Amino acid sequence: MRDALGVGVAVGLSGFAFGVTSAGSGLTLMQTCALSLLVFTGASQFALVGALAAGGGPFTAAAGAFFLGVRNAFYGLRLSQLLALPRAVRPFAAQWVIDETAAVALAQPTRRAARLGFVVTGLSLYVLWNLTTLLGALGAGAIGDTGAWGLDAAGPAVFLALLAPMLKTGTERAVAGLAVLLGLGLLPVLPAGVPVLMAALAAPVVLWADGRRKGRGIEG
Asked: Which residue in 12, 40, 64, 120 has the most C-beta neighbors within 10 A?
């Protein structure tokens, strides 16, 4: 409960930044709120409004947002096994499959704790994110530059804080390090969202290299 509410509150405040950014990009209040209610994945939402603000077309902006959102499908595969929710509940739970709910749920020691963490994180974050989106869009002119407030960094900072304690082995740390290098290195040359997907290649590459190293150790 502590972890879930902490994440929900900390990341939910980032909705202010999205509301301000979206309104500044020319979207109406209704469009801004609809994105948070229906899309509910901050990275994709920021990518969409950022591309529109830069003069991109709606299809280009939507494509970048889609690529960023694809990662949630991979979270869903793991969470489906971990949470083992009833079939009737899964379509509703899918709306809350995002970075933060996945990180909190996967960090728990039991299925019951994972379910509790997923639900509390999802509910608190969904409510607060949509509320602050509305407030941010309404007060866009008064708030000004969100970067000066640091609200845009709250989500990534919380996610890294949750992820770091889970990197217990050398292999896990190598995967994380290579993923960071791939993501940052490809960011200037690939469309928005694609570097995130390419960073996922870090896992098979490191596991392949680790397997070859162990195989040589056995032969030696």
From this structure: 12
